[in-house]
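Milestone M4 deliverable, item 7.
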Amino acid sequence: MNAPATENLDPVINIDENEESIENNDIKLEENPFEQKKRKRTSVIWNDFNEIILPDGTKKVQCIHCLKRLAFSNNGATQYHRHLKGCLSRKLADKKQKQLAVNKGGVESEVAIANFKYDHAKIKEKASHMILVHEYPFNMMKHEVFNVFMKTVTPYYQKISHNTARNDCISTFELKKKKLKTMLGSVNRVNLTADFWKYGQKIGYMCLTCHFVDSSWKLQKRIINFCHVPPPHSGVVISDAIFKSLLDWGLENKVCTITLDNANNNDAVVRILKDAIKRKLMLGGKIFHVHCCARIINLLVQDGLSEIETKIENVHESVKYLIASEARLIKFGEIAKQLPSKKLILDFPTCWNAICNVGYCLGV
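Output delivered:
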């Protein structure tokens, strides 16, 4: 008795619970000679699908391109055709369908034509740059109109989740930091600028900026740290925060000067950093501490404003009185028609130019 022919039987794949990829662990089920032989499938749709059996015995149909599993059906292949029509993995794998990308050069006559290939990894990279440069929220990638716009640009676009966008931004930061470290490795000396301020609930921040001349003799400026500095903001705490940043970037022996304001605790910062830096400083460290010119100018202006402190207080109270009532603002607008159109705003105590703007608005 001849053995039954098996070449016309459909391939059936059994999925084990511990399998991570069906492509690497395909196991053929043994054919039962007593079962009725299955009818040969003639549809070309089965060139892109495999019939699989899950551990619980459920039959599924899996796309060989994107590995998506669809419900098994004996009543037609409409859903399978619909899936193949929108399957991005199949479109990208189809080498027969190529598009042309036209790249224009600086001159109108220079036009380069090449085969277009959608690169989702490149899209994710540029999306992270967009988020970081423009300070967009991560969930912007889920905005409906933005995704419609991207689908209009290219039908191959795949949505990016906010978690993916966040991880991509971290990866971009780490990559840029690595490149900057390589650049700073070839620099002999750097100059630092440190700025400290408090915001909101008395939370202290430090911004540490590095200035240097690169190999092309171009002046470069990079922020190498922006961090929270816990109180008390003594010379020891501030110098420790700065020196940790220098160790992280490998700049502890490359510092030439550091620019700080004239606060008393900064004198202790400079003294501690001088002892911590092993490399010999220029001119014996006489020019190591550069005093902030903006801070000096601000102190000069504040000293001059103290002579008209009473008039400034009157301006403050006048603005508060006017903006407290809509009727007063309307009346003030009728009186001040001869003045340029300005909004009444309160000044910032630490910004002397804001005080001048408020005085100008009131015509004093």
